[in-house]
Amino acid sequence: MKVGIARAFLYYKYGHLWETFFKELGIDVVISPETNKETLKNGTKYSIDESCLSSKIYMGHIYYLIDKCDYIFVPRIATLQNNNMVCTKFHAAYDLVNNTFKDKNIKLLDYNVDYRKNQTEFLAFLNMGKKLKKKKFEIVRAYYLAKQAEKKVQGVALLEQEQILKTKGKLKILIVAHPYNVYDKYIGEPILKYLEELDCVPIIADVAPKAEAIKKSKEISPTLPWLYNKELLGTIELFKKDIDGVILMTSFPCGPDSLVNEIILRRFKDKPIINLILDEQEGTAGRETRIESFIDIIKLKKDDVNGKEKN
User: What band does 25 get if pLDDT is binned at 50, 70 and 90?
Assistant: First the structure.
């Protein structure tokens, strides 16, 4: 049996968890390839105009998986622990995919996570495993090993980031964006590479102690509803003493990000911040020019401060 997973959306957050779970059950996993021009073209074709760029990319990855596996895995997530909400696109993903591609005769494999209804992550995996005709002890074992693998990967990433934050002699730029935008080869990776070309060190906001970040975010906005945005917002507060500037990377027209970005711009006025909107335009020259100007301004300010301190 083969299960297909789209290399988009929450794959970049839970990919190790999902892949390990299926592999421990003896199921082959088919991951769609890196995003490219064709992926976005197909995703746009099967999306409404109002969909955000990330949603269109997701639909393009789903389209690729059709006829390449027995099931296409499409998670539905509404709320997580402590009733933390997520963007409605993650709640609606299953229905969007099912309705959009119903004429393709695809078989979808979903798991429902909604802590308001006592649908926990463990229960979601348990139900999914049963649908795949696996025994309970096999499912529980696979889930346990998947969580261990996820924890290990997250721990390594945290340690690596801690070392990166100690880098001296280079500007450290915090990238505040969802991982599915940061790590996407077509829209996010070029920005990271360009920063490195400018002799800067990208710091990824999603790689941070989540509990500490959420606690910090509540100090800034106690009523912010979206969990993933809380994590990003709190990370700025955690890292602000160690970074030289902030890049907000948002896929157009993301509603939650647009609101949270406004909070960030008002709260962190003492830090240089630039807001990059990712859309379907293929040209990168304008974006690179903005980033280069942003870095030049930071360098000039640092030189000015250093000069005053010497005097």
Answer: very high
* Residue 32 DSSP one-character state: P
Domains 2-150 and 167-310 are alike in CATH topology: yes
Cβ atoms of residues 235 and 208 within 8 Å: yes
Residue ranges per domain, the chain? 2-150, 167-310
**How far is residue 198's CA from residue 191's CA, in Å, rounded to a whole number?**
11
Here the tokens at position 218 are 């509540």
Question: What CATH fold (topology level) applies to the domain 167-310?
Answer: Rossmann fold (3.40.50)
Closest CA to 38 of 11, 60, 62, 65: 60
* Token pair 């979206």: residue: 226
Both tokens of 67, joined, read 């006829």
* Fold designation for 2-150: Rossmann fold (3.40.50)
Q: Which residues contact 311 (CB under 8 A, 6 or more apart)?
A: none
- pLDDT tens across 102-131, in order? 888 899 998 899 999 999 999 999 999 999
The three-state DSSP-derived secondary structure of 189-210 is HHHHHHHHHCCEEEEECCCCCH
Q: How far apart are CA 195 and CA 295, in angstroms?
A: 9
